[in-house]
From TrEMBL:
<protein>
    <submittedName>
        <fullName>UPF0568 protein C14orf166-like protein</fullName>
    </submittedName>
</protein>
<dbReference type="Pfam" id="PF10036">
    <property type="entry name" value="RLL"/>
</dbReference>
<dbReference type="InterPro" id="IPR019265">
    <property type="entry name" value="RTRAF"/>
</dbReference>
């Protein structure tokens, strides 16, 4: 998952990085600090360079606090954050190289004054980056058997979708009518039409977009069917006033 980003940054062994390997993890962190982030002075990186030291985790924890990395106790998530941070710094160092400026002068937009509205919704006052909130989200994900993402807010979105689609009132009422299906389970990547663009990551991304598109079409068709049924209920049972009718001439 890190290969393309590391290749873009110029990491020589970008295709050999294993996010689950501790030495690979430490080596990449050190390279990012030396070449891209450069938060410490050269002489202050001595302890960070000793990647085989048993004290390295403590040194890295201090380093995370110094650069204000929001992710803790998740090496894969931390590595993803540091790589993204390095890319952001790389862009900032030479943004003109990556930007296409349209026109000779940039248009200055007038600042819109946004009124300060005090919300009475208690959810607006929650600290979504609080450790207790993160722990609660992970507990809910574990209960619902939802895979955890490095960003707990993404995990929360996945839990929300599962609850809305599978645990709503209608789904619970129909739970006894569900027929168990026996057979070999198939993954989403197996049942969708195959793509062959010469890159397995691009193929999987295309399959994912195809699934999302099919889901949108299904939701649209469901809404259309509900609209048709609602109209039929009105037109198929019209209310008439027989007193207004005339018999004979």
């Amino acid at each position: 998952m890190f290969e393309r980003k590391l290749k873009a940054l110029g990491y020589m062994e970008w295709d050999k990085v294993n996010g689950n390997n501790t030495q690979h993890f430490r080596k990449v962190i050190l390279w990012l600090e030396d070449q891209k982030i450069r938060h410490y002075k050269i002489e202050d990186r001595k302890q960070l360079r000793n990647i085989t030291s048993p004290e390295w985790p403590n040194v890295f924890e201090k380093y995370c606090n110094d650069v204000k990395c929001p992710i803790t106790k998740n090496e894969a998530g931390q590595l993803e954050w540091f790589i993204g941070y390095a890319i952001w710094l790389e862009f900032g160092d030479d943004c003109k190289k990556y930007q296409q400026i349209v026109g000779s002068k940039a248009k200055v937009k007038n600042e819109v004054k946004i009124p300060n509205i005090k919300s009475t919704n208690p959810l607006d006052n929650l600290d979504f980056d609080n450790d207790a909130f993160t722990t609660g989200v992970n507990s809910i994900a574990k209960l619902l058997k939802v895979p955890k993402h490095s960003d707990h807010l993404v995990t929360l979105q996945a839990c929300s979708k599962l609850v809305c689609n599978k645990l709503n009132a209608d789904a619970i009422k129909q739970s006894n009518n569900v027929v168990s299906v026996k057979g070999k389970p198939l993954t989403a990547m197996t049942i969708v039409p195959s793509f062959n663009m010469g890159d397995i990551m691009l193929d999987n991304a295309a399959k994912g977009l195809s699934l999302l598109y099919i889901q949108d079409l299904r939701n649209l068709q469901t809404k259309i069917n509900e609209t048709i049924v609602a109209v039929q209920n009105i037109t198929a049972n019209p209310k008439t006033d027989t007193k207004l009718g005339k018999v004979g001439k």
